[in-house]
Amino acid sequence: MAVTAQTKLNAEKLRADFPIFDQEIRGKRLAYLDSAVSSHKPRQVLDKLRTFYETQYANVHRGVYTLSEVATAEYEGAREKVARLVNAPEPRELIFTHGATESINLVAYAWGLDNLGPGDVVLVTELEHHSNFVPWQYIAKRTGATFKAIPLDEHGELKLDSLEELAHAGNIKVVANNLVSNALGTINPVERLTAWAHEQGAIMVVDAAQAAPHHEIDVQQLDCDFLAFSSHKMCGPTSVGALWGRAELLESMAPFNLGGHMIRSVKLEETTWGQLPYKFEAGTQPIAEAVGFGAAVDYVTDVGIAAIEEHERELLVAREEPPLPVDPEPICVVIDGATNDLAGLTAMQPMEKATDSDLHYLLPLPPGLHANADEMFGLFTYEFRLGHYMDLREELEEKRMVWTTAQGRFGRRLHATGIQHPAPTLTCTVARDENKLSVSAPYAVAVFDGCNVTADPPRTQLWCLLYAQARQADNLDWRNILLDDKQLDWRVEIEDVSGRNRFLIYDDVQRRTLKNLTIRNFKDDVSYAKFTGIYKLADQTKSNKDAAKRGTVAWSNGEVSQLLALFGLPTDSPLSVLVVEFLPVINNIYQAVSALDKENVNASVRSTIAHGEIPPTKMVAERLRQLQTQQDLETRSPASDDLGQRRILRTSPLTEVPFVCCPDE
After folding, report:
1. pLDDT tens across 160-212, in order?
2. Is the pTM of this model over 0.85?
3. H helices then E strands: how many in the chain?
4. What number of other Cβ atoms are within 10 A of residue 273's Cβ?
5. What is the rounded distance in angstroms from the CA atom of residue 63 to the CA atom of residue 60?
6. Which residues face 465 on adjacent strands?
C-alpha cells in the first residue's frame, strides 16, 4: 500500500500542531467539526509555505538560475510525494490542478468531448458531490449521451443490483463515483464498480476528495482510470489538487487549458503539446500551494493514514458500553457516611440518613450551595431505598442491617469545581406527515470513562404531552390545552418502509414487544388496527459510541382529530409538544441490581446480602421479561394520573408541531 500503518493516534498532541486551536471562542476551546468541507493547517505546512516564499520562490521549469532550480526541485518533489500517497506507477501520471473539481472537469472535457456521443451512457450515483455530478451531466447533454445514476437503498448504500438494468440503457462509457461520500460518509465499493465498468468497456473516474485524508488509497489496487482529490481537505493549502490518470489515457487526450508551459513547440502553422504531466499544467501553476501540498502529505503520512482511519472508527463505531450502573454491580450497600456511586466515578459525597424519613439517605448540600441552586439540579438525581438486608461480608466484626439504593448522575463534571453540570437541556424532535405525528427525544446519560452511558434499559421515563393552542376569550392571547400524553420508548422507531413483513424479520418475542408497545400507544381499537405498522424495532447496534438512547412515540392524525373534537377545537388548531423526563420508582431487587440475570452478578449478590431466596439467573430472566411486559402495558401517566408522585429530572421547551394541511383522519 502507499502508506504504512502507524502507532495509535494521539489527538490531544496533534491538536497542538494547529495554531488556530490556540484561541478560545466565546470563552471555550475552539472545536472544529467542518473538516469534511475544509481542514485547518498544521504548523509544519504553514512553516513550509513561509520558508518557500521567503527563501526559495521562483517560477518553475523556466529558469537556469538557482532560485528557479530550487523551486522546481521543491515542486517536482511535491509531485513525487503526492504520487506515492496514492501509489501511482509513475509521478508523471500525477497532474497538479486547482482542486478535485478542476480535476474532474479536466477528464469530463478532455476525454468526454472526444469520446462520448448518442447511444453512450454516463453513469454516476445518487451519492455524488456536485463536482462529480454536474460536469458529467453537462458533457452528456452536450455530446448527446444519456445521463444515469445508480440509486441508493434505505441505508444510504448503492443499489448494485440495479447495474444489470442500467447496462441495458445503452453503451456504458463512463462510471463516476466517490470513494467516500461527502454527505453520508458511505465507503463505496469502488473496486467492484471498476471491474463492472471495465466489463462494459467504460472508464472509471473516482472522486477521492473525502477519502484521501482518511483512508489509504492505492490506484493500482482500485484499478480505476482516473482519481481526483484536493489538498485543502487533508491539511494542505487551498487552490491546489491532483488528478491521477493512466498514462495511456492522458497521452491520448487533448489538452484542457492552453497557454505557456504546456507546449513543446509553437509555430504559426501548428503548436505541439508537452509531455506528461506538463501537457495539462498550462500557465503558472499554484507553485507554493503544491509545495505545501507535499508538506501536508508528509504530515498525514507521519501521523499515519491507518492511525487516522482507526481513530475515526473508534469515534464512530459503537463500542461495548458499560451498563449504568457499571457492571459488575452486585449491589450498592449504603450506611452512614458511605457514598453511593453507581456510575463508578468515585466522586460522590458521603450520604446522611434523612431526619424526616426512614426511607432515604440524603446527600448533604455542598458548602455554599442552597437546595434550589442551579448547580444542584442534576448533580445527584435520585436515591431510592429498596429494603433491609443483612450485610454478610466476612471482614465485618458485627453483622448489620443495611438497605440498598439506586442512584443516577447525569451531565458532565465541571473542571473548575469538580461537581456536575446541571442536567443537559432536553430537546425533542417533532415530525408530522399526512398520517401521523411523531416525537423523539434522548434519555439522560451519565459520564463514565470519558463516554456517555445510559442504563439498559433506561431507568428514567420520557413522556410526551400534546397541547393545542386556543385563543383566550379576549382573543388577544393563546392558551395551551393538554390533549393527551404518551410514553416514549427506546426500543422502537417510526417505520419507514410500508408493507414490511414482520414475520420474516422479527422473532416471536420481538413481535410481541412491538405489539404491546403499539397497543399501549394507540389506545383505541381503530387506531391500533390502522397504525399497527407505524413502529419498527430500533437497531441498537448502529448507534454511535457516545449517542444517547432515544425514545419515540406517535399519534395518528385520526387520534389528534378526535382529541381536538373532544375539546370542541378546530381540526387545524396549532399544536405543540412538551417532553418530560421522570425519575423512576424502584421497588424490587430486579430493578435495583443491574444484570441480575447474569451468573457473576447473581452469585455476587448471593454472597453479599441475606435476602432469602434470590432466584437463579433463568428465573430472574423470566421475571425481568414479565416485569417488562407489565410495564409495556402500563398506561398510568406520571404526567397526569400520578402527577406529583414522581420526581422530574428535566423537561423540554414547548416545541411547535409542523402544520400539515388536510391530514388523513
Report:
1. 989 989 998 999 999 999 999 887 778 899 999 999 999 999 999 999 999 99
2. no
3. 19, 29
4. 18
5. 7
6. 485, 578
Bridge partner list, 651: 580
Q: Which of 593, 122, 612 is nearest to 388 (CA)?
A: 612
In a domain, 564, yes or no: yes
Among 126, 271, 122, smallest CA distance to 205 is for 122
Which of 653, 647, 589, 651 shows the shortest CA–CA distance to 381?
A: 647
Q: Which residues contact 29 (CB under 8 A, 6 or more apart)?
A: 21
Q: What is the CATH number of the domain that holds 61?
A: 3.40.640.10
Q: Highest mean pLDDT: which of 99-103, 363-367, 387-391, 554-558?
A: 99-103
Short-list 571, 170, 117, 540, CA closest to 319: 540
d(Cα 512, Cα 458) in Å, to the nearest integer? 20
Place of cell 467542518: 34
Q: pLDDT tens-digit profile of 336-353?
A: 433 333 333 333 344 455
Report if residue 389 sits inside a domain: no
CA nearest to 435, candidates 557, 577, 555: 557
Sign of torsion, CA 289 294 297 299? negative
Half-sphere exposure of 265 (CA within 13 A, CB side): 4
Before 328, cis peptide (omega within 30)?
yes
List the domain range (segments joined by +) for residue 636.
429-656
Q: Are 340 and 406 in contact (CB under 8 A)?
A: no
